[in-house]
């Protein structure tokens, strides 16, 4: 199986280390990875703001680059959710339907497709709090939702348990939104900032040294909130821990 790696535009611009860790991790696991050159945005920001027609160009370009691969893997739940459920500004050809059905968020690809349970090269001797973004939690269902009272499960926790030395702490409100929400953090900056501050303080009070997540956008928002408030937490993407980062 040949897997195409799609790196979201904000990771490419601000957090390239997350993209590199994702590539290295997949290659460690024996995956044949291709990185299509010329990739840009998937169209999510425009579509989320009601500008569907404005997303057509970048969506068509994404399909041209990725439509023929066995699978597409992205380290971003919100982008995967857009591609899987809302890639509808372009005609629904066989290539588009194939892409929608074979695009995976990194955690679900590792957990559900590769079925990895152990990362012998990885050691992370720190207390971590896990943040599940609203998109991965409620759209991709990578973990159970506490508000439904369902049997608990967590795909990211299953993966992280294969890392030596890691310890987990649980905030009082583990499924609460951090307030990022894309352009919500711009249009409703005061509310967004307060939600982010509440989130990082909840993790701090639980004893976390790091907040780990599969979504860099949420980490970016929380990192900014923590820095402005002087909350001494550090932030790291799950791909970096699974790839062997120590701090």
From TrEMBL:
Cysteine-rich domain: residues covered: 4-84, 128-221
UniProt cross-references to InterPro entries, sorted A to Z: Cys_rich_dom
Gene Ontology CC annotation, any one: cytosol
MF GO annotations: oxidoreductase activity
One Pfam family, short name: CCG
PANTHER family reported for this sequence: LACTATE UTILIZATION PROTEIN A, UNCHARACTERIZED PROTEIN YKGE
Protein name (Swiss-Prot/TrEMBL): (Fe-S)-binding protein
Organism whose genome encodes this protein: Acidisoma silvae
